[in-house]
Amino acid sequence: MFALGDNLTSRYKIHGKMGEGTFGQVLECWDKERKEMVAIKIVRGIKKYREAAMSEIDVLQQLGKHDKGGNRCVHIRNWFDYRNHICIVFEKLGPSLYDFLRKNNYRPFPIDLVREIGRQLLECIAFMHDLRLIHTDLKPENILLVSPEYIKVPDYKGSSRSPKDSSYSKRIPKCSAIKVIDFGSTTYDRPDQKYVVPEVILGLGWSYPCDIWSVGCILVELCSGEALFQTHENLEHLAMMERVLGFLPQHLLRKADRHADKYIRKGRLDWPEGATSRESIKAVQKLPRLQNLIICSM
C-alpha cells in the first residue's frame, strides 16, 4: 500500500503508478540521490515471487556486466528489500509496444519501423543467447520504447469518418529505440537440456529457438495490429499454427511427451476431429497463410 508523495526508503519519493501485474506493481519515483525519475518494480511479499525477483536481479546484473552501453536490455540501477518486498530500481523508459498499439487503436506500425524493431530485437536475443540465457517470455508487453514521444500522421486507410476525426490520424514513435524488460522467467541454458526446436505445448521444453519464435509472432502483431494466435486452448493453438505455417514437423510430433498425446492421432494433429466446438474450427479456418497475412496488413 502506498500514497503519492510517500517515501520508499529515504532515497526514493513516489510520484505515481506505472503498471501492475501478478508479480506486484511498478511505481514512478524520484531518485533524490541521482536527481532523476526511475521506475521501481515492487514485488509481492510471497516466497515464490521473492525467489523469482532474486533470480531476475541475478540475470539483470549479468546482462549489465556485458552490455556496457545499456543499449539492449533495461538497466538495473539498484535493488533493496523493503518491508518484505524486493524492490528493483530501473531506468525510466517509454511505453511498451503493446500499450503503444492499444493507445493507437491497434493500428499497425509502419513496415520500416517494424524492420528496425525486429533488427534490435534479434540483436538483443543474440546477445542474451551468447550469454547462454533464454528469455522465454518475449511479447509486446515486455518490449519498451526508450522514449514516450510520438508524432501524429494522417491515416485515411479504412476510415469513412470526417478528416477532423482523431481516427484519421495515427501515432508514430519519434524514436525507434527499444529495450527488452522482465527477466523473471529467464532461464540459463544447461548441458542436460534437449537441443530440439521447442514447442512447449508438446512438452519438449525450452531452448533458444523459443525466443526466435516469439520474435516472429511479435513482428506479425506489429504489422497487423493483432496478436497472431488469439486462443488459450492448446489443440486450437496448434491447429492455428498449422493453418498459418503449414503442417507441424514430424520430428516434433514424434518427440511429444505423453501429456501431449491427446493432441496427436495417427502421426498428425487431431484436427478438426478433436476440436471442442464449431466456433473453434471457424476461428482456425478464418486465419490466412502467413505470407497473405503480412501482405494484407501492409
If you had to describe this structure to a student in words, what would you say it looks like?
By secondary structure, this protein is α+β, with helices and mostly antiparallel strands. Strand 3 (24-31) and strand 4 (36-43) form a beta hairpin. The chain has three domains: 7-91, Phosphorylase Kinase, domain 1, CATH 3.30.200; 93-228, Transferase(Phosphotransferase), domain 1 (Orthogonal Bundle); 233-298, no CATH class. The radius of gyration is 21 Å and the shape is globular. The chain has a six-stranded antiparallel β-sheet with strand order 1-2-3-4-6-5, covered by helices on one side. The chain has a two-stranded antiparallel ribbon with strand order 7-12. A two-stranded antiparallel ribbon has the order 8-11. The N and C termini lie far apart (46 Å). 33% of the residues lie in helices and 22% in strands. Helix 3 (111-130) runs antiparallel to helix 4.
Quick summary of this structure?
About 35% of the residues lie in helices and about 20% in strands. About 0% of the residues have low confidence. It contains eight helices and 14 strands.
> Beta fraction of the residues?
15-25%
CATH superfamily of the largest domain: Transferase(Phosphotransferase) domain 1
Tally of separate domains: 3
Instruction: Determine the N-to-C terminus distance.
Output: 46 Å
What is the level 1 CATH name of the largest domain?
Answer: Mainly Alpha
Q: Report the principal-axis shape.
A: globular
CATH-assigned fold name of the largest domain: Transferase(Phosphotransferase), domain 1
According to DSSP, the number of beta strands is 14
- Helix content bin: 25-40%
Low-confidence stretches: 192-198
* H-E order: EEEEHEEHHEEEEEEHHHEEHH
- Please outline the major beta sheet: 6 strands, antiparallel
Q: Radius of gyration, Cα only, in angstroms?
A: 21 Å
**Average pLDDT score:** 89
Major sheet strand order: 1-2-3-4-6-5
Kindly name the structural category.
Answer: alpha+beta
Question: Helical element count?
Answer: 8
CATH architecture of the largest domain: Orthogonal Bundle
